[in-house]
Queue: 3 jobs
Job 1
Amino acid sequence: MSENPNPKLDPNPASNTEKDPDDWVTGEEPMTGAQASYLTTLSEKAKQNPPPPELTKAEASKRIDELKRTLGR
């Protein structure tokens, strides 16, 4: 049985909705305003320094995940 190339027909849709930030096409672009805001909020709650403004989208995403784990979210 061959694998279906159409992701919309994937029986496990979550399998194609999450992508490693290192594989993002736009991962090297500057983090978005939303990411910066969320990182600042999470950093404050975790009592950590605010994020450096030069983070990339991929770096910001990884940091958000780390802070969420730290905070038990």
Job 2
Amino acid sequence: MKSLAHGKNTLAVEVTNISAHGVWLLAHKKELFMSYEDFPWFKDQTVKSIINVEEQSSDHFYWPDIDVDLTGEMIEHPGRFPLKSKST
């Protein structure tokens, strides 16, 4: 009897680390860092809320529990997108 071939990895995005400084997101073999200074919406959230991330479309991430959506470009270059929440 032959074993079936392993399927492809369907998990395109996942949170790999949460620290006192920010959140690390792994997407398509690329690790992205979101500091709480640049992304204050994550600072006081539960781990459950932070790890519940979906990739809505290619390189577009959404956290439904906290209603935050970001693109890879926004995460990599936060200085290009200066608008921040005033509810920190």
Job 3
Amino acid sequence: MTLISNKRVLILAPHTDDAEFGCGGTIAKLLESNNEVFSTAFSACQQSVLKEFPADILITEVKNASHTLGIKNNQLFLYDYEVRTFNYHRQEILEEMIKLRKELNPEVIFMPSANDIHQDHFTIAQEGLRAFKTSTIFCYEMPWNNLTFNTSAFFELDEKHISKKINALAEYKSQAHRPYASEEFVRSLGRVRGVQIGVQYAEAFDIIRYIS
């Protein structure tokens, strides 16, 4: 689709690697077009980190990954909700989002799909809809969590964008054991979405609301 430019963009990520997995290539492309990109992570998943890593390793890794994509340190917002408990903190999470809305006034939101079966992702999607009623909203895909996904928008990516996504994800050493964390998977999904629109690489999104 036509590239967004000169906008304030906010990425709602439940966990520290979700922004890069869901829309890392698009983030890299948006930053080339004079957009201000802000990103969040509502949990550093300390309870899920493998025992050979420090419990807070994902905080370091998300800062490095965001820097690789081009997001400035002061444009990354980190929260400390315990993984898999977001549904117990819905109101607090909504209030954090409303604070971001008032502080940043974002025009474009990227967030998980409302069809994402992970309980934390689903909560962020639901509260994101409530908090950002007047913003354009794109939902990014997580194929391992999405039972269904409506590919209603595509952002074409060049090699440099997919490479930045891969390099950002490579910062997550603690997550390298996950099957979807491999370069092969990231490139393959990018190629599938690219083939669907006749280009080399793309990322697909479900549009909830588009305001031009």
